[in-house]
Amino acid sequence: KDGTNVSLDTSLRLQGDDSERNVPPTKDTNLPTCLLCVCLSGSVYCEEIDIETVPPLPKETAYLYARFNKIKRIAVSDFADITTLRRIDFSGNKIEEIEDGAFSKLLLLEELSLAENRLIKLPVLPPKLTTFNANQNRIKSRGIKANAFKKLTNLAYLYLGHNALETVPLNLPESLRILHLQYNNITTITDDTFCKSNNTRYIRTRMDEIRMEGNPILLAKHVNAFSCLRTLPVGTYY
């Protein structure tokens, strides 16, 4: 996995007579969701239709793809009655704010992408996430709570590249396999960032990849920080 969710091509092509072909397409964002978007077997595709808010979703929606729109804010009410969601993709919007508790009822949610938005802090994340992508935002370390990831015991793929983090997030779960932190502003790490300084026998058996290139840190100065890893992080060593 590279942090990018790939969805089906949802464009609808309608053929008409010659006079109709010269009429420019219009986008009426006041249409009911399943006329404005494509609804198919529990999946809702609302990609590249210039919506500015999360549309009302049909009951039993499991997968929502709302990439490349103009959504600026996610409210608690957007998902208050849709507890069946398993995957949400908001990549390529203009999201600046996510209300506290916006995802709190999504107890089945496994994949969440907020990549390519304008977030400066992370919301509280649902407990069963396996994949979280927040690449290419404006997130600083103070925008991530100390225990933001600690209880996410299923989280395997965490993508936080191309942000403004000064430090590696704390309390990363044991389940983590892939961690992307490339192109941030990370200047230091400690012996407890990935490992346990009080336990020299501790090994992170599941961690396969850590990317830290593009940060202003010389990793060779922190070799003890990687003693529990099976492979060294990708980054600058000299």
UniProtKB/TrEMBL annotation:
| Xref: InterPro entries | Leu-rich_rpt, Leu-rich_rpt_typical-subtyp, LRR_dom_sf, Mimecan/Epiphycan/Opticin
Establish whether keyword S-adenosyl-L-methionine is in the entry: no
Q: Where is the composition biased (Polar residues)?
A: 1-13
A GO molecular function term, named singly, is: growth factor activity
An example GO CC term for this entry is: extracellular space
Q: Pfam families given for it?
A: LRR_1 (PF00560), LRR_8 (PF13855)
Q: Which UniProt keywords apply?
A: Disulfide bond, Extracellular matrix, Glycoprotein, Growth factor, Leucine-rich repeat, Proteoglycan, Repeat, Secreted, Signal
- Residue span of region Disordered: 1-25
SUPFAM superfamilies membership: L domain-like
Task: Spell out the Gene3D superfamilies in the cross-references.
Answer: Ribonuclease Inhibitor (3.80.10.10)
What are the BP-aspect GO terms? articular cartilage development; bone development
Primary localization: secreted
Location in the cell reads: Secreted, Extracellular space, Extracellular matrix
> What is the role of this chain?
Induces bone formation in conjunction with TGF-beta-1 or TGF-beta-2.
Name the PANTHER family on file: EPIPHYCAN-RELATED (PTHR46269), MIMECAN (PTHR46269:SF1)
What family is reported?
A: Belongs to the small leucine-rich proteoglycan (SLRP) family. SLRP class III subfamily.
The molecule here is called: Mimecan
Q: Which organism is it from?
A: Alca torda (Razorbill)
